[in-house]
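Before relying on records like the one below, remember that each one covers exactly one chain. Contacts with other chains, cofactors or solvent are not represented anywhere in the record.
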Amino acid sequence: MRKPSKWQGAKKSESFNRLVPGGYVVTIMNVEEYRDNCLKVSYDIAEGQFKNYYSKQYEQWGGTWRGTSYQAVESRSGDVLASFSNFIYCIEASNRGYTWNWDERTLKGLKVGIVLREEEWINNEGEVKTTLKLDEWKTIADISNGNFKVKDTKKADKPQTNKQVNNNTNFNVDDNDIQF
């Protein structure tokens, strides 16, 4: 094995407390339009025990930013979605003087409340794993006052097996039926 040239002074991995389901105040790190009338919102925990959780995770392991949620603006029929209206209401109520102006870039740096819920998913080996997903936008006041509910874990659909069992062991084969 070849010793890496930057071995001296390499960072050591740190223990990492796992984020738990609950209500959090977050800072919006970035917002960009994703597809047509859908926003990709990146956020990080702004205060408390898990402050800068996603930043620390990204610094330690790299890869994909984990504090991300997608917020659709309107339905296929063109109606504004209640979840988007709630998102904007929570932003405006949590940031004194801010008024939504249809420029997603103005959301960067603002704070808002979120509720994270645990969801199951099934990996390629068929094992059930869990992750946290943004379940609801809330005002900072709602989070601070405990005015939110964390829903139960969203269960994954069990994988379908492609194995078909043939319990019919009573069959007759005539040598003339064999093709070779």
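The radius of gyration is 24 Å.
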